[in-house]
């Protein structure tokens, strides 16, 4: 009886339990071999002339699945790597402005300096109100302001420094900052507002430039209004390399999904033979 029962090391187990060993016909596909048992892959299921017949190596056949062309994203695609025109019922792209910086460092420095000066003046005034002598630095400052004329050199220098600091603070207040973040396009008023790191965009464009035939070295700088690419070529005509490089960078820049189209400037020169 031990020869009739399959063991863990018998050939029937290694073949998936569906091979015939000459002991008798294999059970039908609708039959049960035991409680809770399931037909093994490749076993007799009516799909072949012989139960257990499949590929010689026992592997599953390869099935080709439908794929989506990267250049033609569907309407339900959430990827922003490829731009496509909005559909009939889809809102168009809205204006996406630059991100505003918090200006934490200048604000913290200005607040610290103003708080320190205000605290010194308040302490000195409170000390004078309690019949104590004023601090020496405040007496000297009051005497200097009372005796020096407006055309004095130190008065002019101090006024110039104060005006420069004031203009710097005003410039920080009216400019957005965040020059390292490029705003990305969004669709609809409730669309997600996203930004792309400038250095990451430069890396993507540089990698795309290195894929052009004939390019040996490349460097890409992404600005607020234009993209500047420099490359060297060690074979092919420079005009052909420049044309292919411009086309590749234009396509890559369009796939970044930026809110504003950037200009393109490409410089290609012959690489040094010694390099």
What does this entry look like structurally?
This is Putative membrane protein. Pfam families: DUF6286. With 275 residues, the protein is α+β, with helices and mostly antiparallel strands. Among the domains are: 104-174, no CATH class; 186-270, GMP Synthetase, Chain A, domain 3 (2-Layer Sandwich). The protein has six helices and seven strands. It has a three-stranded mixed sheet with strand order 5-6-7. α5 (198-210) crosses α6. The N and C termini lie far apart (79 Å).
Quickly list its features:
275 residues; alpha+beta; GMP Synthetase, Chain A, domain 3; two-stranded antiparallel ribbon; 7 strands; disordered N terminus
Question: Any chance you could write out the topology, listing elements then pairs?
Answer:
Layout: H1 11-14, E1 93-94, H2 104-129, H3 136-147, H4 153-174, E2 181-183, E3 186-187, E4 195-197, H5 198-210, E5 215-222, E6 226-233, H6 238-255, E7 263-270
Parallel strand pairs: 6-7
Antiparallel strand pairs: 1-3, 2-4, 5-6
The strand line-up of the biggest sheet is: 5-6-7
Low-confidence stretches: 1-53, 70-92
Total DSSP helices: 6
Beta content: 5-15%
Please state the second-level CATH architecture of the domain at 186-270. 2-Layer Sandwich
Let me know the average pLDDT: 74
H/E element sequence: HEHHHEEEHEEHE
Indicate the radius of gyration in whole angstroms. 38 Å
The CATH topology of the domain at 186-270 turns out to be GMP Synthetase, Chain A, domain 3
CATH homologous superfamily grouping of the domain at 186-270: ANL, C-terminal domain
CATH C-level of the domain at 186-270: Alpha Beta
Multimer state:
single chain
Broad shape: elongated
Largest sheet data: 3 strands, mixed
Terminus-to-terminus distance: 79 Å
Number of strands: 7
